[in-house]
Amino acid sequence: MKNYLKKWGLADSLTFELDVQKLDFAKLLRERVDIGMVSGTFGLSESFQYSPNRFIGQVGSDGFKIRRRHGVVLQKNNTAIAIGKFKEKKDKLIVETEVTSIHEVTVIFYGIVLAIVLQFILIAAMFASASNILVFPLMLMPVFLIAFVYPFFMMKHQTRTMKHDLEKEFQFLQQKINTNS
Mapping DSSP to helix (H, G, I), strand (E, B) and coil, where does residue 73 land? Predict the structure, then answer.
């Protein structure tokens, strides 16, 4: 399943090699991440709470599970989740990260939309005459495209955005640790 998600751009793997100590990096990342819920439904009040931190989640000494903080503007909402593990090899820190946009809420959303579309098709088949049975599916095509294709490309974009944000954040943390040393 993960191979298909990676092929479609809904998941990605990253590996960062940093010249920092594991505990220093975990401590600094913990300071830059607010403690909060990562998966499931996201809090509505989160959009109205101010914090200088861009991420919410949990950070431990062995890894992390984070997502972007939601903003008031819909375009800032990124539901992609990053799960990473810290490993030390010699004097380098290796951060292995999985970024994915598919989670419980997405599966529920697609299930509900599919049920609604199938319900409309069944109702149309029951009440349509033989001459206009093909008209209703053609009318549903734009709804299908909006309901299925737009979220697909949105999740693809969210995965790329989270990947880019993590690259910038980890580079910033490495520079901050190196300047403090």
Answer: coil
